[in-house]
Amino acid sequence: ELWISLEEHQDALELIMSKYRKQMLQLLQNRKGEDAEPALKIHQANSLEIESQIDRICEMGEAMRKAIQVDDDQFFKVQEKLAQLELENKELRELLSISKESFEVEREDLPD
């Protein structure tokens, strides 16, 4: 009888320990979720802040690209205008040279 009673007691104890382990495992899993939740919220908040900063950086980059494009366009316009003025200057100098030569030829042809 003692032997049977001991086996029944061990079976009951194993059943109790089994239920205890399940409850502890469940408690630890719930606690891990609770422990991770504040960190997860902080991580999400930081992610949103970083995403916002990335968006601002992208906007600034786009503004810089537009400014560079405008600057390049202005530079090319100035270069074009400069080339045009140099060409006009060269043509005017040639006309002036021709005019001077014709004036000198006329002076030479005139009697003193």
UniProtKB/TrEMBL annotation:
Residue ranges the record marks as coiled coil: 75-102
Protein name per the record: Suppressor of IKBKE 1
Record flagged with keyword Coiled coil: yes
UniProt-listed PANTHER family: SIKE FAMILY MEMBER (PTHR12186), SUPPRESSOR OF IKBKE 1 (PTHR12186:SF4)
Similarity field: Belongs to the SIKE family.
Pfam families assigned: SIKE
Domain of life: Eukaryota
Origin species: Halcyon senegalensis
Keyword hit for rRNA-binding: no
Keywords on record: Coiled coil
Lineage: Eukaryota, Metazoa, Chordata, Craniata, Vertebrata
